[in-house]
Amino acid sequence: MSARPEVRQFLHEPTSTFSYVVWDPQTRRAAVIDSVLDYAENAGRTGTDSADGIIEFVRREGLEVEWVLETHAHADHLAAGAHIRDRLGGTTGIGEGIRTVQRHFRDVYNLERGFLPDGSQFDHLFADYETFHVGNIEARAIPTPGHTSDSLTYVIGDAAFCGDTLFMPDGGTARCDFPGGSASVLYHSIMRLYELPDETRLFVLHDYRPNGREYRNETTIGEQRGGNIHVRDGVTEAEFVERREGRDRTLDLPRLIIPAVQVNIRAGRLPPAEDNGVAYVKIPIDRPGDFSQSYSGESA
């Protein structure tokens, strides 16, 4: 039986996002996964109240942060990883696929010459199946592309943090309809997760409360295999691709996609301030082609 880390979830209700603090109860060493920076798009202002709640919890519990992790470059919320790292320390990490995402958005937004699409904005880029530790608990980074090309699932002891690869069983799976996304690739990523023991605890990044139920963020691999509405045991790749692609054709872009990707490919830091001391995000106007084909969204 795998070691069992302690897990505390934090809900950012405006974006239906769950962040996590995961720690080894013996050493009190921890990882923070998918933290959120508050952002008021109508005012162009960021805030740290949500992230500061995580920081307060970590300090109150006497935890030592070793890792500040992202499951992928999110499109529906701004990441607070830089803020967390600046105040608690730790190593920021994301999958090696971030380089592909950075190259794409460097061109979409015509970013400054100093922006390098080499992943150097993060302290560590995880290779596929790379192992690491949170305290004394062994962890590994399982590649789960399909929603985005850089998507990872972090398995820490008996707990898996799957980003947008899977939602709760009644929510299905993430969309796959943008460059870097593929319903067929996502199917195989999910099959990879289904090889984990049925009792593996699975923690999702988003919950959109199907049929108005209460928020939920924790399930198991067994529950997903038995009841995920998009891809449970017995669903073929062809059936899943048809269902997923049909659903994707009905979805709008995530509301915060434009500021989110420009911050998140920088590990949660704002673009560099201009000569007036103010940071700006760019909005492409009438860019050739369909901008909706520029990035994976975060909706079901």
List the helices and strands and how they pair.
Blueprint: E1 6-12, E2 17-23, E3 29-33, E4 36-40, E5 45-47, H1 49-60, E6 64-69, E7 78-79, H2 81-88, E8 91-95, H3 98-108, E9 124-126, E10 131-134, E11 137-143, E12 152-156, E13 159-161, H4 183-193, E14 201-203, E15 218-220, H5 221-227, H6 237-248, H7 257-264
Parallel strand pairs: 3-6, 6-8, 8-9, 13-14
Antiparallel strand pairs: 1-2, 2-3, 4-5, 4-7, 10-11, 11-12, 12-13, 14-15
Helix pairs in contact: 1-2, 4-6
Structure explained in plain terms:
This protein is 23% helix and 23% strand. Strands 1-2-3-6-8-9 form a six-stranded mixed sheet, with helices on one face. Strands 10-11-12-13-14-15 form a six-stranded mixed sheet. The protein has one domain (7-268): Ribonuclease Z/Hydroxyacylglutathione hydrolase-like (Metallo-beta-lactamase, Chain A, 4-Layer Sandwich). The chain is of the alpha/beta class and 300 residues long. Mean pLDDT is 94; it is low at 293-299. Helix 4 (183-193) links the parallel strand 13 and strand 14 (201-203).
* CATH fold assignment: Metallo-beta-lactamase, Chain A
Alpha-beta content class? alpha/beta
- Determine and state the CATH class: Alpha Beta
Named CATH architecture? 4-Layer Sandwich
Over all CA atoms, what is the radius of gyration? 18 Å
Short description:
With 300 residues, the protein is an alpha/beta fold.
Question: Main traits of this protein?
Answer:
Metallo-beta-lactamase, Chain A; alpha/beta; single chain; six-stranded mixed β-sheet; 300 residues; disordered C terminus; 7 helices
